[in-house]
Amino acid sequence: MNIPLSILGPRRRPDITFHSDGRIDITARISRALDISPGDAIDILALDGEYFLCASSHDPAAPLSPRFIAVCRPTKPRSRHFRTWCRPLARAVIDITLPGASAASLAAGDTTIICGQKAIHLITRSPFPHPSP
């Protein structure tokens, strides 16, 4: 018996998308894995050629709270999809994965603990194709 094969192959939606204008779209899968809440900031950690996304909590009520960039906000009320804006961070990731592109859409791997902080591995070796405008 012949088993049919899919022409499209396995498809997976990207977990995070970095745009050259600084917009960063984060899916619910990542926000749940990192426990991202509105007002948390994200950052990228580089370790031995691998890249990890981490989130840090920001308490605006703290008297000496540091200034964070890339602060996450939900895309809709009560949504687990988040969006943030940070041009230097987005451009750096695009230049690492797809130099010269207008956006980079990446998949995320497993969560891990780096320096006592929860982080999720970003798969940068084979980014999702992104249509050019």
Question: Please, could you describe this protein's structure?
Answer:
The radius of gyration is 16 Å and the shape is globular. It is mainly β and 133 residues long. The chain contains 2 helices and 8 strands, in the order ββαββββαββ. The mean pLDDT is 84. An 8-stranded antiparallel sheet has the order 3-4-8-7-1-2-6-5. The relative contact order is 0.24. The chain has helices at residues 28-33, 87-97, and strands at 16-19, 23-26, 41-47, 50-56, 73-74, 82-85, 103-114, 117-128.
Q: How many DSSP-defined strands?
A: 8
Low-confidence segments, ≥5 residues, pLDDT <50? none
- Separate helix tally: 2
Radius of gyration: 16 Å
Distance between the termini: 45 Å
The portion of residues forming beta strands comes to 35-45%
Properties at a glance:
single chain; 133 residues; mainly beta; 8-stranded antiparallel beta sheet; 2 helices; 8 strands; globular
In short:
With 133 residues, the protein is mainly beta. It has helices spanning 28-33, 87-97; strands spanning 16-19, 23-26, 41-47, 50-56, 73-74, 82-85, 103-114, 117-128. It has an eight-stranded antiparallel sheet.
